Amino acid sequence: MAELLLHSLSEFDVVIFASIARLKPRGILEIGSETGAFSARLLAYCEKNGVPLTVIEPHRSPRPSSKRRCGPASPSRPPSS
User: Do the domain assignments include residue 19?
Assistant: First the structure.
C-alpha cells in the first residue's frame, strides 16, 4: 500500500496546477514541504515556465537536502550558490 501523507498537497494537484495555469503567477512560495513530493512537481512546473519558486521548511528534516533555484533571482537578493 502506498504511504498516506495526511498533509500532502499532491492530493490537490489537479486543482492547484489548474489555478496556477489560470493565474500565471510571477513567483510561487510553498511553506512546509514535508517530504518534498509535491515540491518536486511544483519545481518541474516552475522550471518549465520560468517561474521563481521559493520553498520554506519551518521544521528541520533529518535528511540533508539540496538547494535548487529556478527562474530569475529576486532583484533584492543575489542568487544563492
Answer: yes
54, 29 contact by CB (below 8 A): yes
In degrees rounded to 5, what are phi and psi of residue 7? -115, 20
Residue 53 Cα to chain centre, angstroms: 6
pLDDT in tens, 26-39: 999 999 887 788 89
- Measured between alpha carbons, how far is 37 from 45 in angstroms, rounded to an integer? 13
Classify residue 22: in a domain, yes or no. yes
Give the C-alpha separation, 20 to 43, whole Å.
13
pTM of the predicted protein model: 0.63
- Strand pairing of 28-31 and 53-56? parallel
Longest dimension (CA), the chain: 46
